[in-house]
């Protein structure tokens, strides 16, 4: 690392309280520059954006719009107006599902996968229900990797949307993003990528991936909670009707009709999370300053190290592929005879924060025939010491249950 | 994050809970159940079905069995509760409160585990209410 782990950890003062935080997949910790940027909005220029003719409002507007520019560049969008802010991945995917299915006809297909978080599953399932669409899911192989052969079967000329996660939140499995986008396009469908677990670890390049939509959460990439958004190719944004109406997204309203504001504001109705959006821009800049290659390498190293350490633990099963290059940021495991809740609670007694349960991926858990997993997930501040502490605490956990 | 739990650790998973988790009592199907109620907590990874057989006149609980899987706390809760439920009057079951279950478990229950701990009571009372509603 060009920048040392100690330097990075110093940017996260919360780490000094002694907890071993291994739940970055749920939400990442927040570095000082982001906290300061959010605070500064409230202490220095707390004003609504757009329309304000006074200094504070101008500064807020510049900050909020600037954050859009930052994020558009961060994912390598071709145009700034292709970046729309939302409250996070969930609201992004719900909006995308509503907009992209609005003109679909009964019998047309939506294809998603068994790896999805509920937020990239249920909105499509509900849209299919409401409109008489066919809802299909691509299977996973034994090791949790997506079954590309099945994808080729499921995606047909009737498919209009292929919605899939770039990285599974439950297993950390990487999906073949480019192949799936290409498959979608060959069949005349659009590709919607859930980037919630992808953007924290990789240099995102939406043009290279070839996706039509890419949704993400700010709070998983070192930004504030309640932030995030989506990239969408401009041609889609120009052609789609918004699904949320209100202030800020309007060009003109008369009793007869309304017309929409220009992109991207047409898709951002109401007063947004201004401080959060500004903080999100700072978070992206923070990641850029650490270096996205550095981040990816670090997360890959931590994942590989965790797999190696867990490989030596008796009675512990790690879910997902054993090849560290097929996954990132997550080690999901089970301990023979112990429910994940019990494991997580006992780990907490050793000040280790992990997540336990179905990880909002119940179809996947059903498929694996387990009630859930205990999941350790990593961020840029994760150290080998953290993983060693986890391994030690896992041994302790086992000892409690084998009295 | 609080760091003051260590003293409670062994206590929480003390013998009774581990024992009932490993060897749940009244575990299995019940053919002639008056009602069977599924627990409402699948999101936690707990999936239980409680089977209750009432006496002929419907005034008391004659037999209780349960099936399913869950964490140690919820499994022990189902197991310990099923033992107590057997022989109780229906009126008593209606009156039971959280504390009854907490006392059975006998260990401190954190807010995060409340749902796990109370799964037995909730399932029994919900099942009973629905059963009586059906009757009326
Ligand atoms: C893969 C994936 N998609 C979507 C989400 C939902 O994100 P949010 O809760 O920030 O809207 C998550 C969060 O856990 C996730 O991991």
Question: Mind sketching the topology for me?
Answer:
The complex is a heterodimer of chains A (403) and B (136).
Chain A: H1 5-10, E1 20-21, H2 32-44, H3 55-74, E2 83-85, H4 89-101, E3 109-113, H5 122-131, E4 134-138, H6 148-154, E5 159-165, H7 177-186, E6 190-194, H8 206-209, E7 213-217, E8 228-232, H9 234-239, E9 250-253, E10 258-260, H10 274-290, H11 292-311, E11 316-319, E12 330-335, H12 340-349, E13 352-353, E14 355-357, H13 362-368, E15 373-377, H14 384-401
Parallel strand pairs in A: 1-13, 3-4, 3-5, 5-6, 6-7
Antiparallel strand pairs in A: 2-8, 7-8, 9-10, 11-12, 12-15, 14-15
Helix pairs in contact in A: 2-10, 3-10, 4-5, 11-14
Chain B: H1 6-12, H2 15-22, E1 35-38, E2 47-54, E3 61-69, H3 72-85, H4 90-95, H5 98-105, H6 114-135
Antiparallel strand pairs in B: 1-2, 2-3
The complex binds pyridoxal-5'-phosphate.
Any overview of this molecule?
The complex is a heterodimer of chains A (403) and B (136). Helix content of chain A is 40%, strand content 16%. Chain A is of the alpha/beta class. Chain A has 2 domains: 5-28 and 291-400, Aspartate Aminotransferase, domain 1; 34-288, 3-Layer(aba) Sandwich (Aspartate Aminotransferase, domain 2), CATH 3.40.640. The termini of chain A are far apart. Chain B has 136 residues and is α+β, with helices and mostly antiparallel strands. Chain B has helices at residues 6-12, 15-22, 72-85, 90-95, 98-105, 114-135; strands at residues 35-38, 47-54, 61-69. The longest helix of chain B is centred in the C-terminal third of the chain and has 22 residues, at 114-135. Classes of the chains: A alpha/beta (403), B alpha+beta (136). The A-B interface holds A 17-19, 337-342, 345-346, 348-349, 351, 353, 356-358, 362, 365, 371-372, 400-401, 403 and B 1, 3, 5-6, 8-10, 12-13, 15, 18, 22, 42-47, 69-73, 75, 110, 112-113, 116. Pyridoxal-5'-phosphate (PLP) binds next to helix 4 of chain A.
């Amino acid at each position: 690392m060009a920048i040392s782990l100690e330097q990075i950890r110093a940017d996260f003062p919360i780490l000094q309280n002694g907890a071993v935080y291994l739940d970055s997949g749920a939400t990442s910790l927040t570095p000082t520059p982001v906290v300061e940027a959010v605070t500064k909005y409230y202490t220095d220029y707390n004003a609504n954006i757009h329309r304000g003719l006074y200094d504070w409002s101008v500064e807020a507007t510049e900050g909020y719009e600037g954050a859009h520019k930052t994020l558009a560049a961060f994912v390598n969008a071709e145009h700034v107006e292709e970046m729309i802010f939302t409250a996070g991945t969930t609201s992004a995917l719900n909006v995308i599902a509503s907009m992209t299915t609005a003109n679909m006809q009964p019998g047309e297909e939506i294809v998603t996968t068994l790896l999805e978080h509920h937020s990239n599953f249920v909105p499509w399932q509900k849209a299919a229900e409401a409109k008489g669409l066919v809802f299909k899911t691509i299977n996973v192989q034994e090791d949790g990797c997506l079954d590309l052969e099945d994808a080729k079967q499921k995606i047909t000329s009737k498919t209009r949307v292929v919605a899939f996660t770039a990285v599974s939140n439950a297993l950390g499995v990487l999906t073949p993003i480019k192949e799936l986008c290409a498959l979608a396009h060959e069949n005349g469908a659009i590709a919607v990528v859930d980037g919630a677990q992808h953007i924290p670890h990789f240099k995102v390049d939406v043009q290279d991936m070839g996706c039509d939509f890419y949704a993400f959460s700010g709070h998983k990439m070192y930004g504030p909670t309640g932030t995030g958004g989506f990239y969408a190719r401009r041609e889609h944004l120009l052609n789609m009707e918004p699904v949320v109406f209100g202030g800020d997204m309007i060009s003109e309203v008369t009793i007869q009709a309304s017309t929409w504001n220009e992109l991207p504001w047409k898709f951002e109705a109401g007063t947004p999370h201004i401080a959060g959006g500004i903080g999100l821009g700072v978070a992206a800049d923070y990641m850029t300053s650490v270096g996205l290659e550095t981040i990816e390498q670090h997360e890959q190293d931590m994942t590989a190290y965790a797999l190696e350490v867990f490989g030596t633990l008796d009675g512990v099963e790690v879910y997902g592929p054993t090849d560290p290059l097929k996954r990132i940021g997550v080690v999901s495991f089970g301990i023979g005879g112990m429910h994940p809740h019990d494991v997580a609670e006992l780990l907490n007694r050793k000040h280790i924060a992990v997540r336990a349960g179905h990880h909002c991926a119940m179809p996947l858990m059903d498929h694996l025939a387990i009630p859930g997993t205990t999941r350790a997930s990593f961020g840029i501040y994760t150290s080998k010491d953290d993983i060693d502490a986890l391994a030690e605490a896992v041994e302790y956990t086992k000892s409690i249950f084998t009295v | 994050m609080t760091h003051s739990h260590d003293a409670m650790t062994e206590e929480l998973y003390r013998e009774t809970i581990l024992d009932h988790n490993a060897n749940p009592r009244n575990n299995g199907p019940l053919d002639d159940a008056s009602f069977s109620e599924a627990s409402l907590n699948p999101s936690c990874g707990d999936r239980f079905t409680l089977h209750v057989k009432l006496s002929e006149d419907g005034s008391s609980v004659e037999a209780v069995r349960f099936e399913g899987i869950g964490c140690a706390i919820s499994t022990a809760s189902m197991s310990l509760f099923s033992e107590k439920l057997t022989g109780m009057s229906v009126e008593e079951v209606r009156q039971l409160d959280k504390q009854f279950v907490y006392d059975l478990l006998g260990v401190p229950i954190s807010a995060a585990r409340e749902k796990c701990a109370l799964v037995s009571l909730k399932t029994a009372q919900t099942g009973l209410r629905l059963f009586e509603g059906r009757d009326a």
